[in-house]
Amino acid sequence: MPLALLALAVGAFGIGTTEFVMMGLLPDVADDLHISIPTAGHLVSAYALGVVIGAPLLAAATARLSRRTVLIALMGLFVVGNALSAFAPGYDSLLAARFLSGLPHGAFFGVGAVVATGLVAPERKARSVSLMFLGLTVANIAGVPVATLVGQHLGWRVTFLGVSVIGLAAIAFLAVLIPRSRPQAAPATGLRGELAALKSLPVWLALGTTVAGFGALFAAYSYVTPMLTDAAGYADSSVTLLLALFGVGATIGNLLGGRLADHAMRRTLFGGLTSLAAVLALFPLLMRAQWSGALAVVLLGVAAFVAGTPLNMMVMEKASSAPSLASSANQAAFNLANAGGAWIGGLALAAGFGVTSPAVAGAGLAVLGLAVAGVAYGVDARRAAAARPAPNTARERVVAVNTPRRTKAEARR
């Protein structure tokens, strides 16, 4: 694989670290700024809001520029946002800095996915995207636990300075390893023309699959700590290591999903969502013992991230005229899934259905994701059938008998 993918993975590592580390630092930030933990939790929401707003807008607004230039500029904005977080004098300024830090997140992954697929042969496109996202999953294994530990012992501000340094390293890698290219052609209508690429029904169905499928993940993952301590019987001090196991599972699933998606994209997506629904449905049983609770965390990471790469590739294919924008919009959908899944899991918990009930609610969301993916498959099949000319001769009728099989195989990819 090209070394340029390493540059993208380093950027993804920094982004993944800053996105998830705030969850572990909430008590420290709340204590230092003299605010409540629920109020500090808005800092997580501010970052997610930045992702949702910045992902499509920045990708569309920078469509005319060289993708190498865009990636470096986005990482520069990421560094500024984290540096401002480190030096924020109060809660309001930290809230604004977190929002700023989230703005480049989705656009970086969106543009990076397009760059990654352009560096390899067509049959290895999904694998190249999974290697970029490897930085994000490795961040859950090493970046987030280390950054949390640093913040707890040296102060949360040091953590964000450290993330800024990672961002500077990513800029250096991007400048050296990403090949120079000419500015990309963009529609004459500018931003409006780019956004028009999102009017396609298949694109919205793919984005809907992301929201439901990854909403299933976050419905459970947002409340995995009380599941592990109250149901599986782990001590609070063991949770950090167990969350790193989720990162291990996510890394395995990400690499597996990339490899499988290059051979059968749609079957990989259906398989991942089905596995996710099954794992979440089994959570009440698996969380009855420590060994099976740890296994459940690993399997959750594997199942969820097997579906991640085919989802991103499918959105890019459905919006082929603006792949950077479409992939960025998929990152926005991912963060909507984060917020929506956590909310639905919280409803199940607040209703008194038990500490593992968020996982059962997540299983329902995974089934919904499968249903949306099934509708998308049906839409693609009908459009492919409508695009075929009707046979007029006996010879053409013979050829047409075999055509649906090829079309279905293509649709599965």
Give the helix/strand layout.
Layout: H1 4-33, H2 37-40, H3 42-61, H4 67-86, H5 91-118, H6 125-154, H7 156-177, H8 191-195, H9 201-221, H10 224-231, H11 239-261, H12 265-281, H13 283-286, H14 290-306, H15 308-318, H16 323-350, H17 357-387, H18 394-412
Helix pairs in contact: 1-3, 1-5, 1-6, 1-7, 3-5, 3-16, 4-5, 4-7, 5-6, 5-16, 6-7, 6-11, 6-15, 9-12, 9-15, 9-16, 9-17, 11-14, 12-14, 12-15, 12-17, 15-16, 16-17, 17-18
Membrane topology: Multi-pass membrane protein
Subcellular location: Cell membrane
Region (Disordered): 388-413
What features would you describe in this structure?
This protein folds into 2 domains: 178 residues, MFS general substrate transporter like domains (Growth Hormone, Chain: A); 217 residues, MFS general substrate transporter like domains (Growth Hormone, Chain: A, Up-down Bundle), CATH 1.20.1250. It has 18 helices and no strands. The protein is mainly alpha-helical.
Kindly report the name of the CATH homologous superfamily of the largest domain: MFS general substrate transporter like domains
Strand content: under 5%
Summed up, the domain count is: 2
Largest sheet: none
Oligomer: single chain
Determine the fraction of residues in helical runs and give it as a percent range: over 70%
Radius of gyration: 22 Å
Task: Label the overall shape.
Answer: globular
Catalogue the unreliable spans.
182-189
Structural class: mainly alpha
CATH architectural name of the largest domain: Up-down Bundle
Distance between the termini: 22 Å
The SSE order reads HHHHHHHHHHHHHHHHHH
DSSP, total strands: 0
